[in-house]
Amino acid sequence: MNTQRNVQAPPIGGADHFGEQTWQTLLQFAQLLQDEGELRGLVGPREFGKLWDRHILNSLGIEEFLRENSRLIDVGSGAGFPGIVVGIVRPDLKITLVESMERRVQWLEYVVDTLQLNHIDVVRSRAEELRGKISADYVTARAVARLKKLIPWGLPLVKPGGSLLALKGRQAGEEIDEAVAELDRFRVEWADVYHVKVWGSDEMTTVVELRKERK
User: Fold this and answer.
1) Is residue 31 over pLDDT 80?
2) Contact 59, 81 (CB under 8 A)
3) Roughly how many angstroms between the first and final C-alpha of the chain, as a whole number?
4) Which of 13, 89, 183, 205 lies at a CB distance of 3.0 to 4.6 Å from 188, suitable for a disulfide?
5) Rounded CA gap, 21 and 117, in Å?
C-alpha cells in the first residue's frame, strides 16, 4: 500500500548534512514506511503528513547524547523509532531493538536486512524479561509508556553510569515528578529535560535523560 495522498516531503539538503550514503538509506527507510507501514499496522494514515518532522527526524533527538562506539538498547522499537533511524545515522553504535509483538519484530528484521544494518540486532521480548541478560550504555524509548512505568522496564538494562534517554512530549517534567519513587528505587543520580533542535525540522524534540549511579 502506498499512501501518496499526503506524505511529507523530506527536507532539502539531507545529503550535505548526513552524507550521500546515509541520506539515501534514510530515504529508503522512509519509502519502506510509505509502501508498507500502513499495511502492516505500524503507521496510521494521518501520520504520513508529518513522517519526517514527528517521526524520522524526531528520533535523532537522542543522537548527540550517544558516545562513539557505545551500545544502545531501544525498548519497544515498533516501526523503528528511534532505533532504526539512529542506527542509520550512527553505524558506530551497537544497537539492540527490543520488541514483543511478532508482526513488529518481522518488520524490524525485514528493515535491518533490506538496509543492511549489520550493527543492529532484533530481539523479541518484553524489556522486563531481559533483566540480567543484556545491558547497554544507553537505553532509549519513544511513545512506550510514562516514565513511572518505563523506569522499571528500562533502567535495569542500563549499565552503571549509563543513561535512559526517553523521547517525550510536553508533560516530561510532570512525568519526572510522578516517578520520584522509581527514580530513587533504581538509583538515578540525576534527571534532566532537554529541548533539542534537530536538523531539518522546525519542531523541538524533548529528551529526558536519567543518569544511573556508578557502582
Assistant:
1) yes
2) yes
3) 50
4) 183
5) 13
Distance CA 155, CA 159 (A): 8
Answer whether 84's CB lies under 8 Å from 109's CB: no
3-class SS of residue 29: helix
Contacts 24+ apart (CB under 8 A), 51-54: 51/7, 51/8, 52/8, 52/9, 52/10, 52/11, 52/200, 52/201, 53/8, 53/201, 53/202, 53/203, 54/203
Helix H, strand E, coil C: the string for 38-90 is CCCCCCCHHHHHHHHHHHHHHHHHHHHHCCCCCEEEEECCCCCCCHHHHHHHC
Q: Which amino acid is at 126?
A: R
Cis peptide before 82 (omega within 30 of 0): yes
Tens digit of each residue's pLDDT (9 = 90 or more) over 36-63: 988 898 988 888 999 999 999 999 999 9
Contacts of 4 (CB under 8 A, 6+ apart): 34
Q: Tens digits of per-residue pLDDT, 143-174?
A: 888 999 999 999 999 999 999 999 998 889 99
Cell of 134: 543484556
pTM across the whole model = 0.94
Could you give the 3-state DSSP secondary structure of residue 151? helix
